[in-house]
Design goal:
Layout: H1 2-13, E1 43-50, H2 54-65, E2 70-73, E3 91-92, H3 103-122, E4 126-127, E5 131-135, H4 141-153, E6 160-163, H5 164-170, E7 178-182, E8 186-188, H6 190-203, E9 207-209, E10 212-218, E11 224-230, E12 236-246, H7 252-258, E13 270-279, E14 288-290, E15 301-304, E16 310-313, E17 317-319, H8 331-338, E18 350-360, E19 372-374, H9 376-379, E20 384-388, H10 394-408
Helix pairs in contact: 2-6, 2-10, 3-10
């Protein structure tokens, strides 16, 4: 088969080194600068991963480490991780908030350790800055104590509860009555991370097919037939796979419907948009600063990028479509939220930056949802794994999720 031949060529031609991360023509269907599409003839592969975000890349990498044949289908024409994976705070979370033994808690704590190790080994820019979760009201002190207790249940034992004076010593610009310090929280260059994972996939012989959207299929047989649309030419191709992983993030529901997954197994779908504003001038803090969690998210917090630039967000806006517009008029509400812990924020110093949309399985005023990862035990289809609601801490937990899903496959 064409895929098997391509993979063998990759093993012969591409040395397993960091310098080998260029996209060799031998590892693509129809090689071209920045683009590879499926050939018009039927192809067969052991594992098809749909979706080239950070989690899809991690799944493909883990499958390849098990010596599986893998093709990753990505709808974008030239790049991986163009949606949720590249529109977030780029925070490496510690695993504090999530219910004990939930997938979010387990994947975050395991994934954090794996991610720091991966970044160190592969030269991915990252910083272990630490984070302060602040209480600005005396009624929130008990919530800080409960947060520390929950973190311990999740296996996070490095938190320190601080009083007002201790916080002021660490971050003089902050105004609060107490805080919890999480020293293992950090930041990562998500784009460099995904580029590295993409390189890993290609070096190990995986094939990434850009501009390839799954628009239908037949999953009823021992092998699965995927109808793949080349978004550039409009041509359709049949890809036959022994197993399929749906890692399409915001489009996971659409992909499941297109593949004929039983509707009773598909969870509810919600979108929560989060906007970010950047701060003109120097950052007031050297650490990340978070308020206590709110409905749908973790509140308007202060994060830093790899250059030390401060940005605030995200807010929570429940939306019906994938609209990434940032309304400049939101700045006033952001300023109000930020001044609860940073009262010296200059008026008019916030600039619209970017927006991201979180795929969620719960709606407004509901308890936070967990990652939803289904195999045949739920939907009844052998060889299929569906993932829904992979929002934060999906970036942190990506490598752990990759291993988890590869074992399910």
């Amino acid at each position: 088969m064409a895929l098997r031949l391509a993979r063998r060529l990759c093993r012969w031609i591409v040395p397993a080194t960091r310098e080998a991360h260029s996209r060799f023509a031998a590892c693509q269907y129809q090689a071209g600068p920045g683009y590879s599409g499926l050939s018009t003839e039927a192809n067969q592969v052991e594992c098809a991963v749909i979706g080239g975000g950070v989690v899809g890349l991690a799944v493909a990498r883990s499958l390849l480490q098990q010596d599986r044949e893998v093709v990753l289908l990505e709808e974008a024409a030239k790049s991986v991780g163009t949606e949720t994976s590249s529109r977030n705070s780029e925070v490496i979370h510690a695993g504090l908030y999530y219910p004990t033994e939930s997938l979010k808690a387990v994947m975050c704590v395991q994934g954090k350790a794996m991610l720091y190790k991966y970044c160190e080994q592969h030269g991915i820019p990252h910083k272990r800055l630490g984070k302060l979760i602040v209480a600005t009201d005396s009624r929130q002190i008990n919530a800080l104590t409960e947060l520390v207790q929950q973190a311990k249940k999740n296996g996070v034992h490095d938190l320190e509860q601080l009083d007002k004076a201790a916080v002021r010593e660490l971050e003089p610009e902050l105004s609060c009555i107490g805080a919890v310090h999480s020293p293992s929280t950090g930041i990562v260059d998500s784009h460099r991370l995904m580029e590295s994972l993409q390189g890993d996939v290609e070096v190990m012989g995986g094939i990434i097919s850009f501009g390839s959207k799954v628009v239908g299929g037949d999953l009823s047989g021992f092998t699965k037939e995927l109808q793949v649309l080349d978004v550039n030419t409009g041509k359709k191709t049949t890809l036959i796979a022994d197993s399929v992983v749906n890692s399409t993030g915001l489009h996971a529901w659409e992909t499941s419907h297109a593949l004929g997954v039983p509707k009773t197994s598909i969870p509810r779908q919600f979108y929560a948009r989060g906007c970010y504003f950047s701060l003109q001038g120097l950052s007031p803090c050297s650490r990340l600063v978070y308020p206590l969690p709110e409905d749908g998210g973790l509140g308007v917090h202060l994060t830093l990028d790899m250059n030390g630039r401060a940005r605030f967000g995200p807010n929570v806006e429940w939306v019906q479509s994938l609209d990434y517009t940032v309304d400049p008029q939101l700045a006033e509400g952001f300023e109000t939220a930020i001044r609860t812990y940073y009262p010296a924020l200059p008026h008019g110093s916030l600039q619209p930056d970017y927006a991201g949309i979180r795929p969620k399985v719960v709606g407004p005023e509901e308890a936070p949802g967990d990652f939803v990862i289904h195999d045949h035990k739920v939907h009844g289809i052998w060889g299929l794994v569906n993932m829904y609601g992979i929002e934060s801490p999906g970036l942190t937990g990506a490598l752990a999720i990759g291993e988890y899903v590869a074992e399910m496959v």
